[in-house]
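Changelog excerpt

This revision adds worked examples to the README so contributors can see how folded entries look when concatenated. The first example is reproduced verbatim below.
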Amino acid sequence: MKNLLLLMLVLQTTIMVHAQQWTTLNPYPTNKSIHAVAFATENTGFIAGDNSTFMRTTDGGETWEHIPYPVPDVQLTSLKFRNEMHGALVSWSHIYITHDGGETWNYTQNQLMGDYLDSFFLNDSVGWLSGTYQILVKTEDGGQTWTTLSNSTNFSRHYKVIEFANEQTGYIAGYRWSFIDPVLKRTDDGGINWQELPIPEGVESITGMSVLGPDNIWIAAENSIFNPDLPGSMAMVFHSIDGGQTWTSHTLGENHSTGVKKIKFFDENSGYAITHSNLFVTNDGGQSWESSNIPVAMFANFTDITITENQSVYVSSSTPGLWKSTDGGNNWENKFDGEFGYFSDIMFVDDNLGYLCSYDIWNNYVLKTEDGGQNWQESYSEPRTNANRIIKLEITDLGHIISATNDRRIIKSTDQGTNWEVLDVATDVSINSLTVPSDEAIFVGSSVGTILKSANGGESWSEINSPIVSGYTLTKNLHFLDGLNGFAVLGNQSNQGKLFRTSDGGQTWVELHFGYENSIRGISFDNPLIGIVNVTDIGLLKTLDGGQSWSTIYQNPSISITYVKAFDEQTFLATNLNNLVVVSNNGGETWQTAFENDPNSDQILSMFFLNPGKGWLTGMGSLIQVYDNPLMAIEEKLPLPTAQSSYIYPNPATDQITINCEKCVAIRFYAPNGSLVKEIHRPQSNHIHGLKFPAGIYIVEMISGEDVFRQRLIIKP
């Protein structure tokens, strides 16, 4: 019997070795939400976003480099460049200032009650920061020191945006106690004293403001405003030429459920305003506005807008995305590369050939890769109607690709995705699960409990019995091993779970009592008797008798297992998002940590492991990652008899070792990447000289007749 080697080498050593990790394949440059964009020059620009994402381009967005942010897991929301040299990035209590165009950054932390939300620098020396709980601080030395002008929880006002016309006159805006209680104020003494300004009717919050002069100011309503004379609501901005005492309203567009996030005028005539999913442009001083169509593939959530010295316009999105226009918003180019969409499932046939199903605003897709996920091509597409989407992907032993849609259809290819056939499922309920144990046997399920089976590859369907229980729904964990043996997981709103098994193709179901009421997040069976389940807040349970009895094989209350896989009766794998990979090659008796990293907040949508050394995942923000650990994928062979003493010494070693293997017919040395670096046939001596291997961890394989023994070898520098 051949297994996959699940031997992970965990060493307490200072020797440098090749680190295995999840590698991002898509998108470029990041999948993190982008909240702010600013350009110091036409070519040098910056983006900032979730989880301390801070990046720079020096070629107008063609390529990007990460700038290390000194604090992890900060949501970076406000980025401003006053000129090509001076910029400021603020968020929470953190202040990041550059005076050399972003080559170097000076970090300071100024902890107050609340968070910084915006910054404005009048020149290289004088600037202000605003934030929640009436935060207002000022610097007169370029950000080296800060003076607190206000910060209080009494009569709390949250200042979301600040701008000054000169060193004395400035404006600040946001909201008071709630998001429907706006505030707008003016100062004429540099921020020491402020006066309340009247706010146009219907405005509930202000996040967009553009100050063109001491008395010339634009503000934007963050909320849409209802107009009884029109169907729906309006996105509106307001203009004042008397310092905010009176206002003229301007409608950007009708039937908008969200208001205006940002408004920016770059001279008296040219201005831009972004809503949640639209950009509006004016070239006549705001008298008229036209919608500019940014070709987004996903549901956009525009976050910021900036313009360069040559009038190039950039708009950022949290989806993520960054679009550039060089002609005033008529045409746009996406500066993020890759595939964009909601990737609902991913599977691979081998190391290179794989498929994923996805959807965007307009279409459903099946994408195909032949290089392990580096590049993807469209294999199938169809228009989306009534919010239909492809939800699940399966690949049979013969290579048939079968996808299910939530609107009762099966999409099938028998020639590796060259041609596709669409088959209707005979049901009137929405499909939420798909399991395909063979080329002919296909099962689909619905949350209401309906389960249908096809015995002829989807040509015809019949409803089978369901194990549905009152108060529970059928989860996506419907798992059939063949046309007869299957498992179904139920769940309810109290995070409780039930597990059922059928051995007659769904004619009858038997509840399996696994010892807990907790919900089941994952299930994987190698055969009708041996399988594992992932129980929320408990860990992994194993059965050897088809679910009649269970034993706990992996338990860690601090870890929430998100994916489980039983490759055979001995080989199990479990993951916690993409932060932890643990494996067992002895049926769960012991586990090795194959990969462990600091936690992150990426929301993983689907995961697939081809073997314990190779896996892929998809996540939010069009994320595709690959995990590659070649040592984990070496085939396992039985060890030498325990009576035979087999070992290597010295270990660690330099260029010579002694191997105690009297009957060895071959000795092989595998490098950290799994490649064979040296092989000795019928060694004449147990002393091996002149290895001359680079420092690292190696696997030494000793073969004696039918038996094979492997041992770890450390080569010192």
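The second example, added in the same revision:
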Amino acid sequence: MKSHVVKQGIERAPHRSLLHALGVTTPDMKKPFIGIVNSYTEVVPGHIHLNKLADAVKESVRQNGGVPFEFNTIAVCDGIAMNHAGMKYSLPSRELIADSIEIMAQAHAFDALIFIPNCDKVVPGMLMASLRLNIPAIFISGGPMMSGKFYTDDGEQKVDLNSVFEGVGQVIRGKMTEEELEKLVEVACPGCGSCSGMFTANTMNCMTEVIGMGLPGNGTIPAIDPRRIALAREAGAKIFDLLSANVCPRDIINSDSLENAFSVDMALGGSTNSVLHLMAIAHEAGVEFPLDRINAVSEKTPCLCKLRPAGTYHIEDLDRAGGISAVMKELKSLLKLNSKTVSGLTIGQIIDKASVRDADVIRSEKTAYSDKGGLAILFGNLAPEGGVVKRSAVAPEMMVHQGPARVFDSEDDATKAIMGNKIKPGDVLVIRYEGPKGGPGMREMLTPTSLLGGMGLDKTVALITDGRFSGATRGAAIGHVSPEAAARGPIAAIKEGDIISIDIPNNKLEVKLTDEEINKRIAALSKHEARFKTGYLARYTENVTSASTGAVFTK
């Protein structure tokens, strides 16, 4: 066992003494040491209950002959961090999470790891760490929040956090009173769990299940459901099967399992952030997965689900309908069925046990919402290295759009313009210098997109940015435009009034300028000055790469 280096031999006597101080007994020294990586925190609703899952995991580990050691990682609540300087730290936290886990696991020589994540950056950060360490590992997420219930004169509505963001825009347009908004505030997030739509957190928890690192149900069983505790106990037992067979993350996550993940992501209409995170996971796995391959997957994958924000269903409905296993069953002909999973079963064997229990929540290929996947990568002279859009959440009339650029060098300036009613139908908002280096940290832009939605402009106004969007975003919102403005990509050359052309069906994003004019404008720009000179964000700015590579570090 790897842990022998801290507990066996006369030279490890001091180590054993310290372990005894933790309550480890002499018989325990012969057992596997299992690290329990918990992202519990009292500031994130998706994580407030994770200590209960950790208790179930630790109990199971002890019952199955191991010694559990719990340690924590940081976790940022994107909703609370949204629309202020705190959001600059959200994506950068992913790298800190991966690094901190690497440090703890290597310093204490754990034999295996059980990961307990739930929200946006924590899931990919932990997956990246698992691949970097490559010791037996399994994931048990905290599960999704239930949707809220909001009562109006029209009856009961199912609501979520995105309903509140859009409610702000409705108040500005006079469609909702401030008193009604406050009533919505009180009920939209009814308890613990990751926000209840197919937003980034739930997308990544579902992808963990597809990619093979989480047990069936990991992505969809609600946080408050007792099945979630049962799944935690099962994870605590399964880690010993993985340890006995020496099955490690790099045995599970490979080119085939990543393609499976993108296929299911396309069928679900998942968050655009999944592209950023799955690319980073591929990087840690040593797998080449170019962006145009994502489009190839999307072209052949039907969109089977319309979950919030694209539709009216929530994750609880997806779970009721059969969960991710049932979605994979409908995609059986497109998946790599021999892919391994931590359950000990292949994807094909898991699918054989699944069934669709609601054919509207999970549609078939014949009744699909569209014959193409929910995400698309756009290329063109404005995005030579690509940009991503949640195609399934774009109104039909905005799939092809052309309009004048309204240029803003920060999210804050764009938000002020929207709230000041300065954005008109037909406009194309350009929000730049919000990329990985330029922001820095690539802030999510849920505030401007939800304002547009709440004000009824999401069907007439497009938005492009070198930043990124919340999984709760809907509308013609194109993010991750690469190269970013800070790296002097073409988006830095755009001027107010330039005509921008968006053609989602043909994967095109262009500005009506010649290459010569773009290059001339970029050459006239001064060198971009980093916004932070000290602290973590200064180091992040120096080391982070383009969104097209997953915004990973250069070294």
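Reviewer comment on example two: The mean pLDDT is 96. DSSP finds 20 helices and 14 strands in the chain.
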